[in-house]
Amino acid sequence: xxxxxxxxxxxxxxxxxxxxxxxxxxxxxxxxxxxxxxxxxxxxxxxxxxxxxxxxxxxxxxxxxxxxxxxxxxxxxxxxxxxxxxxxxxxxxxxxxxxxxxxxxxxxxxxxxxxxxxxxxxxxxxxxxxxxxxxxxxxxxxxxxxxxxxxxxxxxxxxxxxxxxxxxxxxxxxxxxxxxxxxxxxxxxxxxxxxxxxxxxxxxxxxxxxxxxxxxxxxxxxxxxxxxxxxxxxxxxxxxxxxxxxxxxxxx
Length: 252
Known about the structure:
This protein is mainly alpha-helical. It has 2 domains: 3-180, Up-down Bundle (Rhomboid-like fold), CATH 1.20.1540.10; 187-247, no CATH class. Helices cover 66% and strands 3% of the residues. The protein has 12 helices and 2 strands; from the N terminus they run ααααααββαααααα. The chain starts with a helix and ends in a 5-residue tail after the last helix.
């Protein structure tokens, strides 16, 4: 398990038991997100993400974080993962203005942002819904986005559908900004500026010298995949993200 996935899991579980067993209800109510009260209770855009309506609510969100979070954190780095998580939750709070009087709790918006990130980098990965039905990650995200929009407009039950949808929106915005300012984009510009005088085989040789035994197992699998792609199709066939990923492990 990766560092921030572990910490966020622990934080959510600890806060759940504190709010159930220790804190008076009047204090907990000050941490709940009520969109209409955001101007006077701005801290709730963060605090509501760590509150849950019950054990099953907590379990469902933490299972999603456990399954989708580690691989994504390994891919984009711990700092970006934490910001993606929190800002997806903030996106959920912002879009909840369409239900101004609702009392909203839960990490669902943040976890939906993590799911979006997972689908962004592994769109064809099979996710088994109810452990039985295989669905590609990209299809699941599209389905959940449409369902959240439809149910939100229709006022479906006690589920914060707009918070879910806002999690997708917040996650998408953060990933776009991250990638625009990422090492991958800088590397792409550098490659384009030097491509005329730089032998393509030099990158491949540098990447082949990486000590793969020292890589995290998740990174090792991705390293092997990208390296094989470079060998089979040539370095120009790699995406800027794949090149930047390989450059992370090159010394000097």
